[in-house]
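Researcher: Sequence recovery benchmark, item below. Answer with residues only.
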């Protein structure tokens, strides 16, 4: 029999939190070894934003998710052993009151809509600054929930070359000289056609995908002793200033403040 955890109860230490308007938010670190995480469920619906890579989730059939900044939705009562493959993995949790959770979604899944990913990053950034704007938090979380129903429509009936193009962008994102036309050439389509089809199927431009992939990589590498300039270069930014500008735009904070927020 699995353990049932109440509101705001997770296998992770809390480093910054906010509770209001039907939501409970927290920035956390995993505090027990992955093999010690018991099978469990939660009374209420919640999101988990895995800042670091190596998150194992029921939403992907308990396979390891190597992508950082992965957003998972777990409906009430989801039985799982979600955990990182190593201790101290960083994550954000968002508990949702029962009257706000979508009633028609009964299975966990990875949330991939562009607005949900963008808003969850800004929510995490807002928590890291200790300057909570309750209306802004409420507005962004409601937008994430509203996006859930459209999640599985993303990329539907897309041409095969589009998936190859997105994989190529992910694989080559750490090259700061990479251009969108390079990806279009690699999959043998015109750059304008590539941009138009990508936006039609995913709701945003290829450049946005590339920037957010780089930001996710940078966020996952912001360890306590990491050199910010080196993180920027390795993630594909031209320099630390470039990364900081992008971080402010998507996270509403700086890389340094985001790093400090997890203790």
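Model:
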């Amino acid at each position: 029999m699995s353990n049932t955890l109440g509101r705001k109860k997770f296998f992770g230490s809390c480093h910054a939190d906010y509770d209001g308007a039907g939501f409970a938010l927290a920035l956390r670190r995993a505090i027990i070894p992955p093999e010690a995480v018991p099978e469990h469920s939660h009374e209420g619906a919640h999101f988990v934003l895995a800042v670091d890579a190596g998150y194992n989730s029921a939403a992907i059939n308990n396979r390891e998710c190597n992508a950082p900044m992965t957003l998972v939705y777990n409906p009430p009562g989801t039985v799982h052993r979600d955990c990182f493959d190593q201790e101290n993995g960083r994550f954000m949790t968002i508990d949702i009151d029962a009257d706000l959770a979508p009633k028609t979604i009964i299975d966990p899944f990875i949330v991939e809509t562009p607005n949900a990913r963008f808003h969850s990053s800004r929510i995490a950034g807002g928590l890291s600054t200790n300057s909570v704007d309750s209306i802004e938090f409420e507005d962004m979380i409601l937008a994430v929930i509203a996006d859930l129903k459209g999640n599985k429509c993303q990329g539907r009936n897309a041409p095969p070359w589009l998936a190859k193009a997105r994989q190529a962008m992910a694989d080559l994102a750490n090259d700061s000289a990479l251009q969108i036309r390079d990806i279009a050439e690699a999959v043998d389509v015109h750059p304008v056609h590539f941009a138009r089809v990508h936006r039609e199927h995913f709701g945003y431009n290829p450049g946005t995908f590339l920037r957010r992939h780089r930001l996710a990589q940078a966020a996952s590498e912001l360890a306590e002793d990491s050199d910010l300039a080196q993180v920027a270069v390795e993630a594909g930014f031209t320099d630390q200033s470039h990364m900081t500008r992008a971080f402010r735009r998507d996270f509403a904070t700086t890389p340094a403040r985001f790093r400090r927020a997890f203790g």
